[in-house]
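Q: I'm writing up a methods section and want to include an example of the input and output format. Could you take the sequence below and give the corresponding predicted structure tokens, formatted cleanly so I can copy it straight into the document?
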Amino acid sequence: MTRLMPAVLAAAMVVLGCAAASAEENRGTPEQRAACTSDAFRLCSAYIPDPAGVEGCLRLRKSDLTDACKAVFDRATTGSARTR
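A: Here is the clean output for your methods example:
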């Protein structure tokens, strides 16, 4: 388990970046990170620890995301549209 901790932390950072709704560094909430961490590992592990790569992968695989992670991306998209 200790050997997996760096990968888990990297995935959490990736998920934080995925939930960004603006150009600013928005790291997301713990709930958002929890919602997408398993999807990042399951679907996009080849891109870890590249946050942009994982985010792009998750966006491309949106139809394969869990409902919770899909909702994170939906809220980020809706939120950014409202602020413009």
